[in-house]
C-alpha cells in the first residue's frame, strides 16, 4: 500500500471554487513535489494529507488508512503524531526561544519532560542550530527561522513530512541549502516527503512530480 494515495479527490470552497486533484500515489519513504501556480490547490492538498480538512468527494489514504474513516480523536492523534508540517510562514512563537518552540511542538505530540528536552536539543543541533537554542526567532536569520520550524516539524519523528513553499523566503543559494536539509532530514527519519512549490527550479530537484493546474486541475507528471 502506498504511503499516500489520492483517488478522485475534489475540494469545493463555496459555490465558486472547485479543485479537482489528479489521482496520486507516493510510496512510503519517497519524496515528491507538487508544482502549480498560485490558486491551483497546493496548500489545500497538503491540508488534505495532514487531515486538516476533508475532501468534498473522493478518498485520501495515508499509511493504509482512509482519513475520512477516522474519528475526530483518531484524526487529531494522526495529525499530532504522524504528520510534520513545515509552514510557508514558519509560524514560530515570537516570545519563546528556538528550543522552546520545538518543545511546544513536541508537547502537542505528547512528548514532554527530560525526553522532550533531549529530543529538541538533538534535532536543533542536527539542523545546525546547536549554538542558537536560547535565541528567540527575532534574533535569527530567515534561514535559521526556517530551520527552527523544520526542527519543530520533525522533532516527534513523523512518518509524513509536508512542506509548503519551503524556498519562498530564501535566495537561490539558501534555498538549495534548505532543500538539501529538508530532503536529508526526511531521509534520515524514513519519512515520506511532499513539497509544494510554484517554482520549477525546486521541482527539478525531485524525481517524483505532480503538476496542479488552476481549475480543473487534471494533469500528472
Ligand atoms: N478557506 C478557503 N475559503 C475559500 N476559498 C479558499 C479557501 N482556501 C483556499 N481557497 C481557494 O482555493 C483555491 C486554492 O487555494 P490554495 O491555497 O490551496 O492554492 P495554492 O496553490 O496553495 O495557492 P498559493 O500558491 O497562492 O498559496 C484558491 O482559489 C483559493 O482562493
UniProtKB/TrEMBL annotation:
A GO MF term: ATP hydrolysis activity
Q: Keyword set for this entry?
A: ATP-binding, Initiation factor, Nucleotide-binding, Plasmid, Protein biosynthesis, Transport
Annotated Gene3D superfamilies: P-loop containing nucleotide triphosphate hydrolases (3.40.50.300)
- Organism, per UniProt? Allomeiothermus silvanus (strain ATCC 700542 / DSM 9946 / NBRC 106475 / NCIMB 13440 / VI-R2) (Thermus silvanus)
The cross-references to SUPFAM superfamilies, in alphabetical order and at most eight, read: P-loop containing nucleoside triphosphate hydrolases
GO cellular component annotations, sorted alphabetically? Answer: plasma membrane
**InterPro entries from the UniProt entry:** AAA+_ATPase, ABC_transporter-like_ATP-bd, ABC_transpr_LolD-like, MacB-like_ATP-bd, P-loop_NTPase
User: Which domain of life does the UniProt lineage start with?
Assistant: Bacteria
What's the short name of a Pfam family annotated to this entry? ABC_tran
Q: Which N-terminal stretch is annotated as signal sequence?
A: none
Q: What name goes with this protein? A: Translation initiation factor IF-2
Whether Flavoprotein counts among this entry's keywords is no
Q: Does the keyword tRNA processing apply?
A: no
In this protein, which residues make up the domain named ABC transporter? 4-221
Amino acid at each position: 500500500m502506498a504511503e499516500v494515495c489520492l483517488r478522485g479527490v475534489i475540494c469545493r470552497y463555496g459555490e465558486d471554487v472547485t479543485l479537482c486533484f489528479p489521482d496520486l500515489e507516493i510510496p512510503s519513504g519517497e519524496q515528491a513535489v507538487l508544482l502549480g501556480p498560485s490558486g491551483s490547490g497546493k496548500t489545500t492538498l497538503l491540508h488534505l494529507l495532514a487531515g486538516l480538512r476533508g475532501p468534498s468527494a473522493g478518498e485520501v489514504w495515508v499509511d493504509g488508512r482512509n482519513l475520512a474513516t477516522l474519528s475526530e480523536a483518531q484524526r487529531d492523534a494522526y495529525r499530532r503524531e504522524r504528520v510534520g508540517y513545515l509552514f510557508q510562514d514558519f509560524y514560530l512563537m515570537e516570545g519563546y526561544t528556538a528550543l522552546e518552540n520545538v518543545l511546544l511542538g513536541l508537547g502537542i505530540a505528547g512528548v514532554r519532560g527530560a525526553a522532550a528536552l533531549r529530543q529538541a536539543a538533538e534535532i536543533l543541533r542536527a539542523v545546525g542550530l546547536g549554538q542558537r537554542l536560547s535565541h528567540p526567532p527575532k534574533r535569527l536569520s530567515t534561514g535559521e527561522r526556517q530551520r527552527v520550524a523544520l526542527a519543530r516539524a520533525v522533532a516527534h519523528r513523523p512518518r509524513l513530512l509536508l512542506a509548503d513553499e519551503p524556498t519562498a523566503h530564501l535566495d537561490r543559494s539558501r534555498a538549495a541549502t534548505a532543500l538539501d536539509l529538508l530532503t536529508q532530514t526526511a531521509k534520515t527519519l524514513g519519512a515520506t516527503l511532499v513539497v509544494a512549490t510554484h517554482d520549477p527550479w525546486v521541482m527539478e530537484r525531485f524525481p517524483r512530480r505532480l503538476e496542479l493546474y488552476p481549475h480543473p486541475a487534471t494533469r500528472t507528471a
